[in-house]
Amino acid sequence: MLAVVLASGGMDSCVTTAIAAQERELAMLHVSYGQRTARRELKAFGHIADFYKAKLQMATSIAHLAQIGGSSLTDGRIEVSQANIESKEIPTSYVPFRNAHLLSIATSWAEVIGADRIYIGAVAEDSSGYPDCRPEFYEAFQRAIEIGTKPVTKIEIVTPVIHLRKSEIVKLGAELGAPLDLSWSCYKREDVACGECDSCALRLRGFREAGLRDPIPYA
Prior knowledge:
The protein is α/β, with parallel strands linked by helices. It has a single domain (2-210), classed as HUPs (Rossmann fold, 3-Layer(aba) Sandwich). Helix content is 39%, strand content 12%. It is built from seven helices and five strands. It has a five-stranded parallel beta sheet with strand order 3-2-1-4-5, with helices on both faces. Helix 1 (11-23) packs across helix 6 (166-176) and helix 6 packs across helix 7. The longest helix is centred in the middle third of the chain and has 16 residues, at 98-113. It is globular and about 50 Å long.
């Protein structure tokens, strides 16, 4: 059986890939969207896909999201805010409706190659800021897949880490031997992680609470 794995190259998608690899052959999909660290994320994706010997790999782009703007990840005029992981406000790093675009591409590919699952490393811990990381979003999109594909097509969205804390994801990754040293989470930099953006802060807190050392370099 074959599954499409949406992989950004970050920690959550790396652990999601490790889970998927136990259950399916992998068709790994990376979608750049005009973000600041696109080249570094693509590099991480390639290393992780090679590590798991993915049967298929595809990297594509929806750079029009950068033209649309509205996010500090895609618009250089908007500063990436300092981490405030206790905030309940939507952060500047939110890319409007991004995950719907990613799932649409994954669904199209899955239908063509005969994959029966789409794995995505969404985490509800992030959902206070990102509306498209909530479980109900994926439930709704699952219904859209059922309505919008061929009658014989059966594709299930799988979100294996959606209810886990970052520390639990770190521990699970360690248990599964996920190559977290190959992953990249920083929103701002491509040489060394900034340690200051929301993504870095959540990742660092996860490793700290898990009692493990983050293997990637920080400024």
